[in-house]
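In this section we walk through a basic example: taking a raw amino acid sequence and producing a predicted 3D structure, encoded as discrete structure tokens. The instruction is simple. Fold the sequence below.
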Amino acid sequence: MSPGLPYTLLLNNGDGQIVPQLGPGLGGRAVETIDASQLPTTKALDLRLTKRFQAGGRELRAYADVRNLFNFTNVLALYAETGAVTNDVFKQRILSPEMTNLQAEANAAGALNGDGSIDLSGNCNTWGSPPNCVALRRVEARFGNGDLLYTPAEQTRALDTYYNSFFGPWRFYGPSRTVRVGVELGF
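The resulting token sequence is shown next.
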């Protein structure tokens, strides 16, 4: 077990500040006294089992090395602005320009519908960048139903996947249980 590091909760401007931070100093405006918060305690139990054998005048050692035997979920970092592994203000700050640019390009191509959906069934050559139209067709097929109508729900699903790939909660957790099994040959 290892006690969590202290940190300072920051005002949520959507900057995506993470603790523990890599450099010195605060990355934003503190909303509490310095180091008043603490990361969760991390815990893990590792186990290594070894069995020795004699074979052909050589010593063989078979082993099983298990890390985090009980598969504890360890939070190693957090967003300093929320004290959690998620930050909705930061997510909105990242995804809002993407959505705005997507709708502006679709509108310029005459493909934006009144409900925010994008009609991708037309000629991609009418788009300012035809490869974007082709790429959106593929995105709609993957995150939608393949009908060439890129609905707001499908857009949200695709952008959420993009966000979670880079900024999602997964990156704040320590490794889960791992097992290595092997044989060593002694000389």
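Looking at the output, two observations stand out. Strands lie at 6-7, 18-19, 37-38, 47-55, 58-67, 78-79, 118-119, 149-150, 178-186. Residues 88-108 form the longest helix (21 residues). In the next section we compare this with other chains.
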